[in-house]
Queue: 4 jobs
Job 1
Amino acid sequence: MFNNLTEKLDKVFRNIRGRGYLTEQNIKDALREIRMALLEADVNFKIVKNFIAEVEKRALGVEVMKSLSPGQQVIKVVYEQLVALMDTEGFEFKVYNNRLTKVMMVGLQGSGKTTACAKLALHYRKKGFSTMMVACDVYRPAAVDQLQILGKQIDIPVIAEDTKDVIKIADSALRAAQKDYRNLLIFDTAGRLHIDEMMMDEVARLKAFIKPDYIFFVADAMTGQDAVTVAREFYDKLAFDAVILTKMDGDARGGAALSIKAVTDKPVAFVGVGEKVSDLEPFYPDRMASRILGMGDVLSLIEKAEEASDAAEAEKLAKKMLKNQFTLNDFLKQLQSIKKMGSLESLIRMIPGLGRKLPADMKIDDNALKHVEAIIQSMTDKEREKPEILNGSRRLRIAKGCGRTVTEVNRLLRQFDDMKKMMKKFSTPQGMKDLERFMNKTQ
């Protein structure tokens, strides 16, 4: 997501960052490169034109030209314009404990609508709300089965009936939700490969019957400007409230995320960032702009860590690390927590300074974590607590037990030993100063 755009913008900013002064030509050259980067990211050309004009007006003004660090000021202007472009101000999705909130999901077939229903239901179930889903996509083969399977996986009930009458299904769902005191009822609706009158008429009738509190248009970010075009057509006929962009973890160039608000005047509310049902994130324009500019996204990283870890366990672990008592059992628990947070690549790109140093086309294999996990799980409890007892025969047994090589076992133990030495170093006052100095360099 945005990797190519981030790399291109970083090249532009490297040329102007740190200069004592910038000429008007320097800024215009930089803006020309930014324009090309945005167009290559499949951002709508009219939006790019307006974006560049606004940045140029501010960049050639007093706030940049008279600044002590004009390069940083240009970056600040670009950041603020990106935030404004994706602005979500005025929209808030609210679910209440004391009444039912009804949501309709609409969009074309293949956009990930059914999976988005399950992701949204799970996201709010984790927040303590009682959720339910409704299978109103009665035309696509196996759509009802797919929603029921997803519901079973996450233990959320699905209302489905053996009929093609979506009004009848919706009526049963509304009755069931009221009876069970549900907080959130999510309707999966029929899609087509393209917009047609039959589909739009059915969705309009369903909307009139259930009177939804929110309508979300689900768009596949991989389709780029096609997603924006379809969104505009859906909005003209259905007036949805916000957008859920799916498949943002793939090779999406980002154009849809940057264009959709300006074209429809409706914001992106959530983004799907992976294939797992838990891979849904609220959309924050400021955080997304930080990621695009390679500044990382510390707040999202902290939220993911808090969700994946237990506060008491984290405190206990911190004390062990300070006392240099960190074991392979502790390491295994941390690996399992990291796996819950998402892909390694997405996490690394959230770290300020580090994300922009990775090549845009670099792929980090998450299977590496599984291999490390398998090696540790092949050890006995005693070996995990005291890895120094691992002689040659024990290492051979561990390698055979997990299907890896002795070389990989040796590499893991060596890296673990290096990590413990680093922890011991950073636990001292001087070590903390060195760590702080290192983090400042990556900014």
Job 2
Amino acid sequence: MSVREIASGLKFPEGPIAMPDGSIVLVEIARGTLTRAWNGKTEVIATLGGGPNGAALGPDGAVYVTNNGGFEWHDRGGLLFPGDRPASYETGRIERIDLKTDKVERLYDKCNGLRLNGPNDLVFDRHGGFYFTDLGKGYGRLHDRGAVYYATADGKQIKEIVFPIDMPNGCGLSPDEKTLYVAQTQAGRLVSFQLSAPGEVVPSPLLSNCVCGLPGLQYFDSLAVEANGRVCVATIALPTGAITSIAPDGTYEQTPFADPLVTNICFGGKDMKTATVTLSATGKLVQMDWPRPGLKLSYAGW
């Protein structure tokens, strides 16, 4: 498959959104910005600070961002890697950015009196609410236990729906929205939760179902769902990362990229077969023609 470079020189890009005008809105975690990229050009939409990690268009046309609060950063041979929480860390939060005015609004930074530690990724359902993961933060020999939340776009309601879960990262919904998929980073495992209603997980003795786990040392990052229900998970590995497309029965195929930190994928274009992938260690945004269409997100505008 032919890979086309859309932008370079980005500071750990993540959270791509394919816009109807052909541009890509994404976050730069190390720069602390929401950025637009097109035809080799970039412009900063808003400076958020902390560590903007995931992004999605909401029902009102605004961009909603999961901000992890920031990382320490390490340059290893010209490749950028995140580390523990920095000295400047205050809290994780959910932010809303109005694309018409560039106004930034903080919607949530706690749930039931407990602060959000490291919000990572989010997905809206067709009812206007959104699921998001909190991977937690590392500090020295400790790491927060992770959780999954459901919240409304108006900033008025948030609830924890899964706890504990180790390092939950990417999240996505099946085409019928009856299944929530969550990628666990350290375990390199894709798990699923059955939903009985928006924000309601069906109780289970084992809490989740393991859809797929990869052999060897391969970490999972963010994800996107194909129209046929396959889940495409960004996969971190040495020397090259990949996009792992996983069928509901756990079988998978991989598409490698020239970067160890392949962190996210989104779909766009009129046929939803244009895949945009973030290569975070090298700071690049690339596109390729995907063999199957991606799932149209509820508020993507396509």
Job 3
Amino acid sequence: MIMFESLSDKLDSALKKLSGQARINEVNIGNALRDIKRALLDADVNYAVTKNFIEQVRKKALGAEVIKSVSPSQMIVKIVFDELKEMMGGEQVDLNLKTNRIPAVIMVAGLQGAGKTTFAAKLAQYLKKRGRNPLLIAADVYRPAAIDQLKTLGAQIEVPVFAIEEKDAIKTVKQGIEYAKQNARDIAIIDTAGRLQIDEEMMQEAETLKKMFNPEEILFVVDAMIGQEAVNTAKAFNERLDFDGVVLTKMDGDTRGGAALSIKTVVNKPIKFVSSGEKVDDLDIFYPDRMAQRILGMGDIVSFVERAQERLDLKKTEELQKKLLKNEFNLDDFYAQIQEIKKMGSLQSLISMIPGMSKMIPTDQINEKEIKHIEAIISSMTKEERRNPEIINGSRRARIAKGSGTSVQEVNSLLKQFAEMKKMMKSLTKLDKAGRRITAQNIPIGRLAARR
């Protein structure tokens, strides 16, 4: 995850100072913890949270008996991992939807611009995939743009959106819940009004909605990119609403990300979801242990596999695998593979999930725009050219470059790298006898997307 790259690098550097040490003592652990403290504060983690974290690690490190099969540095990594996990909540917390009431009510609150409306639609998609029948209620009645946005997103995911012409949030929600009852919608997701900053009118309306409709879940949506202000906003909302969980949005940003590490400790409410990107599928359950692994550069292969299973078309994957084994892979197949991988999210996020991959391919070297160029180039080819790239001569390359808005050099580069990739795939299939099967997920498109 891009947001934690700088923190990950600094923690890795601090922990490396303990490698090779025969034992842990006050001096070497003190030096490492000083660097860890600086790394956390640089990442905009709350000072009180950082101070407590350092003290807990120091206490456990100096009191720990080093197991013979484990080095002191490995022991410290384990302690830091455990404390990071606890800082972010310890265990994953599910939505509380165990109720006999139909519809169950989920209220979404937060400031304008935090991604609240987009999250409401993402949540509806998430629940729909799990067999529920959600209804979106457009209760942000003061901003026509918010209602229009929710209707557009609802149409994309084929979930109905309830709205009325009047600027009356209470009436909208009341009628919306009645509509849900009459139309077999078992969950009502209320998108409440947001403001650019906290004000009394917004808070009073949110409190009234909570009192009148008694939601099973109140989720507070906060922009992770605003740093410590995210924690302050969470505190203000929690004091008035006593919400049930936090949703961190814009986790694909390149800011310091300290809010994600601070917010659970400060408001004592679990982070339930993290959101990155604008696509309706770009929503992940928050697992403190998996996030701690990613921050420490251990990857998150479990989430990677889960995302692949959920989003990839297994039939297409199997068909592509057969083509690879027969060495019949062409640019049409490559284009299809790009579309499949894009379903799983950004390349940066995928790289951060694979243990050790972020060290091999730093995410700042991955250029997502390069993928769009590749798509444009392939789309500008004829069917015959995609199936037989060998026929693409100079005049065809000039035509493709013009049609895709790229240069002849970029077309040449793609064709050259694709040819190299086919050679590599051919050699890999020969390893099948040794038990290594090549699958569609093995295609290294990340190399093609790297900055030249």
Job 4
Amino acid sequence: MISLTLFIIVLTTAVSFISFSNEIWMNKLIFHPPSIHGNKEWYRFVTCGFIHADIPHLLFNMYSFYLFGSAIELFFKDTFGDRCYFIFLLLYITSLIACLIPTYYKQINNYNYYSLGASGAVSAIVFVYIFIAPMQNIEPMFIQIKIPAFIFGIIYLAVSAYLSKKGNSNINHSAHLWGAVYGIIFFIIVCKINSKFNPVSNFLMQLDGFFYNVKHFFNR
């Protein structure tokens, strides 16, 4: 059985490639707050996550999603049992929506504003992983340096905030921030309802061990 991660990657890649050469398709699916507000085209909150600006944008998002999504899917199987697929899909789809709500209200009357990409949902998946394993070493794409996941998360959000302020493309970088926040909140709530795993305690315990070792190193 194909994993949900691979299914979403295949679907997103197919829809994105169709939209690259079909402007009508692209304009129908892209996130456009005035169209959502005026024409009640609420589906755009979700469909914009299945189209991308170009091939590098698509590759970056799907590569990141593959790396972290596969790990999260396995963790969800162990933690949530038979409900794992539903919870994983619910996290992904609702992240697409939640990460765009601030942008929707900010740009609701801006007819020149468009955005697209799965960045918000991918960010949610990435930060759920970071919350589960903050000390796991991550090697960012094209950078041959391994860093702890929680440090990678700080850098990731800082870069996203900077690019969001520049705001010179259809890629909504603020979705990274809101996707990350939503993903962590979603995960905490779902764990509270569906398992005995305490993600907050687990996260703090791992960080406490890290900072203890750092303090011990400098006090030698």
